[in-house]
Amino acid sequence: MADKGKLTIWLETPWVSRAFPFAAYMLFILIQDMVTPLFSEAIASVWLTPVIYAIKIAAVIAVLIYFWRSYDELRMENIEPAKLLWALGAGVFVFVLWINTDWKFATMGNPTVYDPRLIPGNRVYIFIALRLFGASVVVPIFEEIFWRSFILRYIINPDFTRVNIGAFTWASFLISSLLFGLEHYLWLAGIVAGLCYNLLLYKTKHINYCILAHGITNFLLGLYVLFTASWRFW
Q: What is the pTM of this model?
């Protein structure tokens, strides 16, 4: 019982609830990288990739639901139309930036190129719908909680819950944007995206507008990929 009590206390720690969903997502990426070489390309493309992605999104959703009550920063009393427009503008801007900055010097490593059209039958449409949902809804929620709520404030003060959402310091602004960029294959686009989402947070003082902007970016990017078959962006 004592051990269970310690685990509960640990799970209730503010940094755990904000880092755990991000860590879970990254863990599944690592698992996929380790497991994929064990299978033939055909099996990996048709079965392994879509199955792991579905499990990954389901797992992250479960983690978010478990911790949801602890995300005080997501609560809103009212929605301001002007801030919605700022979020829309930021989301569209980052999308346009993303598809136009895939220069060789601005990339890191090799992109994971996966063509979902390899999936036979109607299952391809299910996967595409899940992929769009994951990219435009689930990913923006846990990434903005991690980067804009946790990391941005933690850099200012390790006791980050004492720091107001949208508090500015040059160190937190630049370091968090750099780290956000280095998370992505298109590192330069990622850094500029991090700067934009940070600026949006300073303007709106609320994480939800950053989630919306991030979701708009990813949704537009998903549509662009599907209509142009530019799978390197997905």
A: 0.93
The string of pLDDT tens digits covering residues 175-216 is 999 999 999 999 999 999 999 999 999 999 999 999 999 999
Alpha-carbon distance of 197 to 210, in angstroms, equals 6
Q: Is there a contact between 197 and 148 (Cβ–Cβ < 8 Å)?
A: yes
* Residue 105 Cα distances to 10, 102, 175, angstroms: 42, 8, 21
Three-state SS for 112?
A: coil
Per-residue b or e along 141-179, where b marks 16 or more CB atoms closer than 10 Å to that residue's CB: bbbbbbbbbbbbbbbbeeebeebebbbeeeebbeebbeb
Q: What is the pLDDT of residues 72-109, one digit of tens each?
A: 999 988 899 999 999 999 999 999 999 999 899 999 88
Angle of helix 207-228 relative to helix 81-99, nearest 10 degrees, comes to 40
Domain of residue 219: give its range. Answer: 2-233
The single-letter DSSP state of residue 109 is: S
Question: 137, 215 in Cβ contact below 8 A?
Answer: yes
Into how many domains does the chain fold? 1
